[in-house]
Amino acid sequence: MEPRTDLAATVDALMPELKAKLERLVSIPSIAFPDYPRENVQRAHDFVAEELRSAGIDDIRVLELPRTAPVVYGRIPAPEGAPTVLLYAHYDVQPPGDAELWHTPPFRPIERDGAIYGRGAADCKANVIAHIAALRAYGGTPPVGVIVVIEGQEEYGSDFDDYPAAHPELFRADAMLICDAGNLRAGTPTLVTALRGVADVFVEVRTLAAPVHSGQFGGAAPDALLALMAGLATLHDADGNVAVPGLRRDTWTGADYTETEFAEITGMTPDMPLLGTGPIGERIWYGPAITVIGLDAPAVETAASAVVPYARAYLNVRVHPEQNPAEGQRAVIEHLRRARPFGIPLTVSGGDVGTGFAAGTDGPAYTAMRAAMAKAWGTDAVDSAMGGSIPLTNSMAAAAPHAEVLMLGVEDAKCNMHGYNERVLLSELRNVAVAEAEFFQLFARTFAERAVR
Fold this sequence. Notes:
Layout: H1 7-26, H2 38-54, E1 59-63, E2 71-76, E3 84-90, E4 110-112, E5 115-117, H3 121-137, E6 145-151, H4 163-166, E7 175-178, E8 182-183, E9 190-195, E10 197-206, E11 212-213, H5 214-217, H6 224-233, H7 259-266, H8 280-284, E12 289-296, E13 306-307, E14 310-319, H9 325-339, E15 347-354, E16 357-358, H10 364-377, E17 382-386, H11 392-399, E18 404-407, E19 411-412, E20 423-425, H12 426-452
Parallel strand pairs: 3-6, 3-7, 7-18, 8-19, 9-17
Antiparallel strand pairs: 1-2, 2-6, 4-5, 5-20, 9-16, 10-14, 10-15, 11-13, 12-14
């Protein structure tokens, strides 16, 4: 097949239609959480399946699993000697939260200043549309084989997370484009090469049978909340760095945020210092984080003048992408058990763990994608990482251990995914679609060249 030189122009011509399809998909409140209408999830599934058929995928099927929204699965056979590329995204979305805090209705997509606003616009429905666009650019006959996997319950979690590893024959590919990530900043093409692992830890302390008067007994009676806070304070040093032995932190050499940029993205209040020291990438991607995400203690509004007999905290622990999260979890548990604030023992237990991911980046797919991104954006791609996790990534990688895994997408640091006023820039949707289309032919060529050698 002769190389296509008109892919960017083809995608540009498709953009009005792609924008309309994105708006229609965003208008479907496909929330796969319990207590939300399941028919909306089915509507989104049906829309995606039909659009993929129209884009040239004749072999469309539904993967039905227990307790799981239907997964759209489709295939285009590879031309002789060509590689196969797996395309992943998801069509379900987070609940919108308080609609009063949205500037526009969350499921009434609105275009403003080159962006589409609406729940799921960035995470992850524009990535679905980008896949469709790349296929449309070739009239449904790309120069590579294609497997499309569009999940319907990624945000809530489902039985699909472990499905690819258990059914590898459905997911064998030479490269996987996991399009549920995004760019360090708008206009900077980014490959996400690592994901931190995650573990839950619970800490509780009981010191008294019941509350006792703080005036009569405070000062000697052991305060459970005070002991808990003192124990939690040992998790970090004076600068805010994690101080638990056994948690890995390495030098980050990829692209990074400036402190000013990070403060703006996170909405920090004026003059608020960052936690920790060193490059931000080390702190949020290549090192540990321990966050107190829940606390059981008397509420201020209803508090009595009493020594607290019981308190509990819920910790979210993030670990280096290449560290076993169970190992990191054990390190935190052992540290807190040793702490014994004021001589008071803490009861510490572990919860769920999720493995991180570190991609190999020196294969032909990465070479092809870097070139494709440079064509689409007009600037070189950078490497970044994510402090969050994509549970399916490891299962996909296990299903095709020789495949290169590339994580990318339409999101940028200011897209407000999972937050209020979520939006996707149409320029990023266009560039991802062009890069994916360019990647198909560049990867097919490099794959063929390697086969000849």
